[in-house]
Amino acid sequence: MNKTLTTVFALAVASVTGWAAAQEVKGDAKAAEGKIAMCIGCHGIVGYKASFPEVYQVPKISGQNGKYIEAALHAYKKGDRKHPTMRAIADSLTDQDIADLAAYYEKHTTGDVTVAEKPSREPSTKTAELLKKGTCASCHGDNFSKAIDPTYPKLAGQNADYLYAALKSYTVEKNGYIGRSNPVMGAMAKQFNHAEMKELADYIGSLQGGLQTVPESRFRSK
Fold it and tell me: Crossing angle, helix 66-78 and helix 84-91, to 10 degrees?
């Protein structure tokens, strides 16, 4: 990891640790069953696409790290992540609601979700160089599925078009409607042009991972 990213990483870890210590709310997955109505309309439909700020498949959140889901929702609530729909949803949630939803989706999986230690396919030489430059595995762990901190997301198998849109959002500044404020990801993403971001997203999205979109019964075909 280069010196700039190392410094930024240390500051971010300290910030995340402080946030976690102040947010000791125990989630109840069962209680969340009555709170997921606003989530399943997008995240409970396989292939569902958002249209803002561009068209992309909404992220798979079933099987995602619960603490990451909590951190993401709090970031939308604070405005560190700027997305009008997600901001409105997060604003409607209490800290307990957020903890409950995170606990629910972390366990909301079907079938075998065991993830191999190594990626299911090797990157090209060019992609490998980009991954090394971004030091992606240093945070997101083995096979981009075993993050070094539970507030970081699993990435392997995530929708590639969502990953691409997310990477670009970390480079957006001074925009009231889009963008994400995260010192580590901002420093990392700004090293790449859009073509390189897409190459990273396409590769990581192509890997086998434990993330899923689990259709809710009301959306399943009869």
Answer: 100
